[in-house]
Amino acid sequence: MPELSRGAPSVGASPLDAHFFGWKRFVATTAVVLAILFFPFTPSDRQRDNTNLPFLLVCVPALLLTLSAVFHWATRRRLGSAQTLLVSLAVASIAGIVLVMGTWAVRTLLHVPPPPGRPVTYAIAIRFGVTFGLFMCAIWALAFMYPYATEDARRRALEAEKLKLEADRLRTAGELARLRAQLEPHFLLNTLNAIAGLVTQDPGEARRLLACLGDLLRDALHDADEMQTLGEEIAWLRRYAEILESRHRGTLRFQWDIADRAAQVLMPRLLLQPLVENAVKHGALRRHGGGQVVVRATLRETGDGAPRRLVCTVEDNGPGMPAKPLRSGAFGLHAVRRRLELKYTDAGLQIDSSPDGTRCIVELPCVTTPPRPATRAIPEMA
């Protein structure tokens, strides 16, 4: 039976269940139509001729099957809703006329007399056939077409939502890649400038730091994964700090306070590097008598049953941030904040600055598996 399973009882039903449900709906619809046609709603209806019952037992299922076949044909041809409706109405009218005329011919061949006082003419038969066909088309549309159209609209909405979320995900991934592509050359140029000052003063140290820079670049560019553990981030920052301390020997020092239990927490790759760079360039190096940068990382217990949080702090003892940050520093802070926004829904960057120094605090969820980009969940589809 074509397309009787289109109006599935529920999303995710098996093809066998849907097919069985379609047959049940077909039988139920046929029974309802026959009940409407033969139920005695008024006293005069009890006296009406019921000799048409055998013919209607054939005509009603036949017309429902015909409409289902038409709908199956229309969906395969990808006709629009209006075209499908017009074709269904036309076929229902023609099929109704054919069935009524066929019933009349069979009654004549079997010498079944017409109902008393109700002479049958071609005009009456055609008019009744059209009315019967349109009536059956309306019943069929309510029983089969409406459930299918509702389900199809829901599926289309889910598919549109899925495509929108996929576009959001790709846009998020593209922006993350763009931020990282901007950040890595920015870091490389600043580091090369730091080493350039040692080429004439201490060539041996410059060669050692160039080798160290090679290790940094290999670690930064070898793996395209956006996430790494805090332990890997800190190990990378220590080598970066070694270059900076050597370049500014006697005027810059680093201090590290990293909780061991936080080492396996995942975070975006090189997230803290712009904060360390800003702390050195716009903070510690502006401190007369020598500057210091302190990098801390710990796990904060929420105490309310919620997951723990990773808190990373980069602090310097410089003169504080100006009212309008320099463009290079502003780019680094913007990159950190934007990467957090794109990767998490509950992470943030807080900056506290005073004449005694600047503290940048990054807080993010404590997870050990890579988080999904910060978008809504895609609804389940059958």
| N-to-C span | 23 Å
Beta-strand segment tally: 7
Largest sheet: number of strands, sense, barrel closure: 5 strands, mixed
> What's the pLDDT, averaged over the residues?
75
Instruction: Identify the quaternary structure here.
Output: single chain
Judging from the principal axes of the Cα atoms, what is the shape?
rod-shaped
Structural category is: alpha+beta
Number of domains: 2
Model regions low in confidence, pLDDT < 50 over at least 5 residues: 1-21, 375-382
Question: Can you write the helix and strand succession as a string?
Answer: HHHHHHEHEEHEEHEE
Protein described:
By secondary structure, this protein is of the alpha+beta class. The protein folds into 2 domains: about 15-160, no CATH class; about 195-365, Heat Shock Protein 90 (2-Layer Sandwich). Helices cover about 60% and strands about 10% of the residues. It has 9 helices and 7 strands; from the N terminus they run H-H-H-H-H-H-E-H-E-E-H-E-E-H-E-E. The protein has helices at about 15-40, 55-75, 80-110, 120-195, 200, 205-220, 230-245, 275-280, 325-345; strands at about 225-230, 250-260, 265-270, 290-300, 310-315, 350-355, 355-365. The strands form 2 sheets. The chain has a 5-stranded mixed sheet. Strand 4 (about 290-300) and strand 5 form a beta hairpin. Helix 1 runs antiparallel to helix 4 and helix 3 packs antiparallel against helix 4. The longest helix is centred in the middle third of the chain and has 75 residues, at about 120-195. The two termini are about 25 Å apart.
